[in-house]
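Predict structure. Chain length: 233.
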Amino acid sequence: MDIKKLQTLVVDALEDVKGQDIKVYDTTHLTSLFDRIAIVSGTSNRQTKSLASSVRDKVKENGGDVIGMEGEGTGEWVLVDLGDMVVHIMQPAIRGYYRLEELWGDKEVKMGADKRVSKRSAEAENDVTEPAKRVFGEVNLATQTTLDDDVKKPARKPRAKAATADASAPATPKPRASRAKAAITGTDAAAAPKKPVSRKKAIGTTVKVASSKTAVASAKQAAAKRTSRKSAA
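Prediction complete.
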């Protein structure tokens, strides 16, 4: 079988079972035992076994030879020997530990898994994009119809503005109420007439108190002094 056809079959078989990080390398310049090496990751023992079975069945259906398979018991690292091509199906931890890409990855095949899209992926993408395009087309049509209806509607006439007073005329200041009563009643306390204040008369009788003896004696002495001054003059 042609090597290009063989590597295409292998990559298709790996993509059918959702193999991760598929890499294909040309090893003709490194060894004469095989021309291609493929490395792929499986998330579990069951998936690695399924990937190996998919490769084996795909190659046999198309007339290819499967020389042998190793590692199916544990499922951590399954090797499928196809003669001109060797497929390493590994769990991520095992792949990261052995790093086969550093040994065989000098020349990566450009037509490998990273540059191809499987038929199943293409069909799934079409199944998603076609309804989306149809929905977007209906939305655009509805939007265009709404815009056309809005254009056909007559424009509303602006309402006539009521006549207003001249803005340049000075406004008459309103008197401020300076008291709480004016604020409550709405009247100007300053303009309101002031009521006369009435003084209340004291109610009761006046009682005269007699002068003390000391005050009487002092008054007599003062009167005697005035009399003596007048006589001396």
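Summary: The domain at 3-114 is CATH 3.30.460.10 (Beta Polymerase; domain 2).
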